[in-house]
Amino acid sequence: MYLKESSFIIHMLENTREILPNYHDYGFVLDKVLQVMYEKTGCSLKLFLDSEGQEEIWTVLQEDIDAGHAQLVANIFDYVETGTIIYEQNGDQQDFVIKPALTNSVYYYPEHQVGLLKLPIFQNHADYEREFLLAKNGHDLLQFLAYVYERQKEIMKDCVTVFTDTEDGVERTKEWITQQVSREDVLLEGELKNEIYRSIDEFFNESGEFFKTYNIPYKRGILLYGPPGNGKTTLVKSIAGSIDAPVAYWQITEYTSSYSIQEVFSIVAKMAPMVLVIEDIDSMPESARSVFLNALDGATSKEGLFLIGTTNYPERIDPALMNRAGRFDRAYEIKTPSLVLREKYLFGKKLDRFMTKQDISYIADQTKSFSVAQLNELYTSAALQWHYEQAVDLDKLIQNLKAANEKARTHEWETDPYSTSVGFDF
Q1: What is residue 104's DSSP assignment?
Q2: Is 11 helix (H, G, I), strand (E, B) or coil?
Q3: Distance (Å, whole) CA 291 – CA 276
Q4: 404 Cβ contact partners less than 8 Å away, ≥ 6 residues apart
Q5: Which UniProt keyword terms apply here (predicted)?
Q6: 191 and 329 part of one domain
Q7: pLDDT tens-digit map of 93-130
Q8: Fewest CB within 10 A of the end CB: N or C in the chain?
Q9: One-letter-per-residue 3-state SS of 202-218
């Protein structure tokens, strides 16, 4: 639904600053914007306010400027910034770039005949900005919003969107998948691995046709738990790189609140079907848990959301999260790798380039309690030693890592006896 045409009671150009002191300057700027838009595009546009704070519009705009889909019509104030310096990473490439500023600028989509405007407003007590959409009518604007969300899905498929709760609200960044992780690279027991991937694949196969056929709610949640360094993140990366759907990663922090929970679920609901990974779910602040549970139950989300929660401390998980459809239906323990998996991992790292097969089997046998991350550290240490000395002392490497593991487990780190003093000596 959209607004019908309406008439105006008060016309800004018929009144002076003395008559309308609070409105005149604000209206004057917007009138100038509409005049310039008409001169440069030939379209008579109307103003619409984005009261929902739809960040997706501006995220898509930034991408579309780079892609040439959106054009800069004009900057508004001459003594306000028109560009921003950003350190950008795209794949293996990273460097400083200068991006056109979204604030203080008017952009236009010729294909949709829609303009976007972030207007800085300067007042004595505070400076702020308001976000406007410009379109010929409500119908065109709704068509454009449909484009925005389809475009956002397309953008999100090329990377992982990261939500981080901060003191100033939800910060959104994107991380490019620079190194594809294949499903074969994920170190899990065969039956467990098949069950997780089958659940994922069926969820996104033909828009969840399986769920409709068997009258199952089109929501799914799994919890991955176990000691750190055993491939929970690698599993998530392999999922992100192997499904045709957006993947978002939400980092819970001490700043997670009812507001940030509602914001994240509002965003992902518009992108569904998609995967939402919730990292360190056990660290959800107590004050926000009831809101989080309501969001999982569907009060603020919709169908098409596949949740993956991760934790290193399952004993801290709220029991209300488990064994309830729409929350987390299944929990999977990601254990330290078995002897077979340790050997598979070491051969996969191509240790046989400078070791015998017997040496590799010996390492696998001697590293019973090692996580995948610790096996990787052993490989790195062995490769460095071989590179510089053309020999590897396996027993010493293994013992050193075992000792480090034990100190980490018991927190018995060697410290400088003088390091406990605090303050200054006079």
Answers
A1: T
A2: coil
A3: 17
A4: none
A5: ATP-binding, Nucleotide-binding
A6: yes
A7: 778 988 899 999 999 999 999 999 999 888 777 778 88
A8: C
A9: HHHHHHCHHHHHCCCCC
